């Protein structure tokens, strides 16, 4: 979750999907850009604003799978450079009628590691409303009710007893577009697994996304 008023993603395949020409057999690179990248079983798609996921190779995680507390272990977002123990908790909000979709209660908790110009809240709460396969519109609670943002799941899975996810956040007036890596383990993600995830991100046909990961993906401090 990032507080936002601008919701246009800052990277993708380089061409919005609405303007792309039909894919022919001679356009293998373009076709690949519309599908998730896969490395050692790690399946990651580009942001859906720029590419239509291959429905046979990628699908959104079930809400029951996403529900729970996640540790943010790696991120390209500057907001986590001066924070530690970043945790995001999702709780399912059942629909009030059969015509509605379930939403998510969203709480981000963190601890500052350095002084900042403006005080940082230890907890940011909001509600996530579904917006496409794996996509969400976030709106803050309380004094943050006027704030909104967009985020989506790009990849998710399990390895042994560890669940992982990669999320993308659209650019906002406060932060640039960026990526987070989540782990279900409080102590953080395993070294081998994060290497596989980062390799899949760097191998993405979305050139801008791959470059962002190479230049800006950093470990988020976990210290209990």
Structure description:
The chain has one domain (37-219): Calycin beta-barrel core domain (Lipocalin). The strands form two sheets. It has an eight-stranded antiparallel beta barrel. Strands 1-2 form a two-stranded antiparallel ribbon. Helices cover 14% and strands 34% of the residues. The chain is globular, with a radius of gyration of 17 Å. The protein is α+β, with helices and mostly antiparallel strands. Residues 1-38 are annotated as: Disordered.
Key words describing this protein structure:
Lipocalin; two-stranded antiparallel ribbon; 14% helix; single chain; 224 residues; alpha+beta
Condensed summary:
This protein has 224 residues and is of the alpha+beta class.
Low-pLDDT stretches: 2-35
Full CATH superfamily name: Calycin beta-barrel core domain
Total number of distinct structural domains: 1
Compute the number of strand runs.
Answer: 11
Distance between the termini: 23 Å
- Give the helix level as a range of percent: 10-25%
Mean pLDDT: 83
List the helices and strands and how they pair.
Layout: H1 28-33, E1 37-39, E2 42-44, H2 63-66, E3 68-75, E4 83-93, E5 103-112, E6 123-130, E7 135-140, E8 148-159, E9 162-169, E10 178-183, H3 191-202, H4 207-216, E11 218-219
Antiparallel strand pairs: 1-2, 3-4, 3-10, 3-11, 4-5, 5-6, 6-7, 7-8, 8-9, 9-10
């Amino acid at each position: 979750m990032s507080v936002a008023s601008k919701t246009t993603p800052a990277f993708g395949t380089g061409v919005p999907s609405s303007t792309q020409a039909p894919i022919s057999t001679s356009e293998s690179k373009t076709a690949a850009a519309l599908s998730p990248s896969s490395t050692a079983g790690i399946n990651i798609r580009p942001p859906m604003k720029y590419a239509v996921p291959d429905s046979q190779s990628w699908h959104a995680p079930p809400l029951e799978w996403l529900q729970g507390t996640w540790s943010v272990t790696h991120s390209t977002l500057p907001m986590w450079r001066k924070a530690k123990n970043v945790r995001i908790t999702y709780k399912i909000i059942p629909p009030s009628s059969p015509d509605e979709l379930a939403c998510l209660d969203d709480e981000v908790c963190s601890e500052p590691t350095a002084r900042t110009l403006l005080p940082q809240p230890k907890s940011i709460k909001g509600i996530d409303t579904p917006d496409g396969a794996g996509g969400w519109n976030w709106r803050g609670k309380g004094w943050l009710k006027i704030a909104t943002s967009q985020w989506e799941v790009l990849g998710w899975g399990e390895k042994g007893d560890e669940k992982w996810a990669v999320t993308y956040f659209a650019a906002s007036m406060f932060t640039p577009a960026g990526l987070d890596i989540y782990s279900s383990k409080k102590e953080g993600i395993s070294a081998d697994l994060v290497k596989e995830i980062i390799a899949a991100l760097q191998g993405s046909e979305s050139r801008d996304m791959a470059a962002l990961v190479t230049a800006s993906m950093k470990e988020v401090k976990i210290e209990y």
